[in-house]
Design brief:
Blueprint: E1 2-11, E2 18-25, E3 30-34, H1 41-49, E4 57-66, E5 69-70, H2 76-82, E6 84-87, H3 99-106, H4 114-124, H5 126-130, H6 141-153, E7 159-163, H7 171-186, E8 190-195, H8 198-204, E9 207-212, E10 215-221, H9 222-227, H10 229-235, H11 242-247
Parallel strand pairs: 3-8, 3-9, 6-7, 7-8
Antiparallel strand pairs: 1-2, 1-4, 4-5, 9-10
Helix pairs in contact: 3-6, 7-8
């Protein structure tokens, strides 16, 4: 479905934010991308969604393909029409609009019956159904994140991009976000999620990638990544730097998963 191939991204004249990055996200799967601050996770999402230029970024090498066709020269709106939707970091709901007005805004480029999309959103997120007439600013942080995800689904995407969906949320709400991601996959929409919270992301993912300094340093099934002592130490409760993680790629058996 999605193939990012040898992607190099720069912001102005700075060092590359992504360095020859290769990544695949398959249909009907959750693909997790984990790593610390500055690893390149949000840059990856902006590159796929086509909004790098808003931050003076540019894909200078490589390509991005969706369903086998290059999309890296398409506008953001054209990518939405192809079936890609981004839920950005920080939620970014329209604070002064109601819940339902936010959802309707998410369907601006969608074809088909709007009411059926609203019904689907309210079925998935019953808290939004109860608060449909409330302004988004009155929702809790967790409810705003649910609204942001529901708004992303209103375009009927085949691939949903989630940028740090657990950021700033309480552990109980993070668990709910994980359940929502699984529900979206079970309904047939592929999900690419980038997270610092590797425990949540790898618990719901089918496959995973670990980024450090703009490169893929580990990849494999989520179960394989969760099972390694190194990933557990650095990302599932331990501590460690990106440089320490990069050194692990030379060790067996992790080498067979490195991209």
């Amino acid at each position: 479905m999605l193939h990012v191939q040898a992607a190099v991204v720069r912001y102005g004249q700075s060092a590359p934010a992504l360095r020859s990055l290769d990544l695949r996200a398959g249909p009907g799967e959750v693909t997790a991308v984990v790593g610390g601050n500055g690893a390149g996770k949000s840059t990856l999402m902006k590159a796929v969604a086509g909004i790098l230029a808003f931050d003076s970024g540019c894909l200078v090498e490589g390509e991005i393909r969706f369903d086998g066709r290059p999309i890296h020269q398409l506008s953001p709106a054209a990518r939405v029409r192809r079936g890609i939707a981004l839920v950005p970091e920080g939620r970014r709901v329209f604070a002064d609009l109601t819940v339902e007005e936010n959802l309707r805004a998410g369907a601006a480029t969608a074809r088909g019956h709007l009411q059926s999309r609203l019904d689907d959103a309210y079925e998935m997120f019953d808290v939004l159904a109860r608060r449909r007439r409330q302004r988004a600013i009155l929702l809790s942080g967790g409810e705003q994140q649910m609204l942001a995800i529901a708004r992303g689904m209103m375009s009927g995407p085949r691939l949903l991009l989630l940028d740090e969906p657990s950021l700033g949320l309480a552990p109980k709400v993070v668990e709910q976000i994980g359940q929502v991601i699984s529900m979206i996959r079970d309904r047939g929409t592929a999900v690419l999620v980038v997270e610092q919270n590797a425990a949540m992301a790898l618990s719901v993912a089918d496959t995973g990638y670990v980024l450090a300094q703009g490169q893929v340093v580990l990849s494999g099934t989520a179960a394989e990544l969760r099972a390694t002592d190194e990933v557990q130490q650095l990302y599932l409760g331990g501590s460690g730097s990106a440089d320490e993680l990069a050194r692990f790629t030379d060790r067996a058996p992790l080498g067979r998963w490195a991209a």
